[in-house]
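Help!! Second protein's tokens look totally different from the first
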Amino acid sequence: MCRNIKPLFNFEPPATDVEIRAAALQYVRKISSVNKPSQINEAAFQAAVDAIAGISATLLHNLETSAPSKKS
């Protein structure tokens, strides 16, 4: 399991929904210590990924900076 989540803010082109979801999945895997959840935990795991991806997308769309965009 990877230890680092890739930064997604202030890049050109902007982070895609796929990249945001991948970061959310990595985060949920990290904090739960589970790479692939059991069947009984699958719904809770996916709900967490969905929620974190949505919140992350909102955050990234609402952040502002005067710094120039970085190339991805």
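Here's the second one for comparison:
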Amino acid sequence: MNRYQIYLDPNDVNVFDRLSHKLDMSRSQIIRDVLSRVAREYKKLLTATYGPKSKNNPLLKMAGIIKGTSKNLSEDVDSIYFRD
């Protein structure tokens, strides 16, 4: 565990103090618990948003499924579409 210095809103500190008295826990432990919980939720958000790409994703498997002579399909769409 590392030591960090942070600034907290006085109203939040009052809530932590009341909780520490009621729960018979230290204020520091309550703050660590709160930060751990929030960090886990942010981690879920990061994983869902920027997480590793699934190798079993059917859309990614379909990418490149069309084999052809042209590598510029979007540029050559007219010549491909109007081909006899």
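Reply: Different proteins will give different token patterns, so don't panic. The chain has four helices and no strands.
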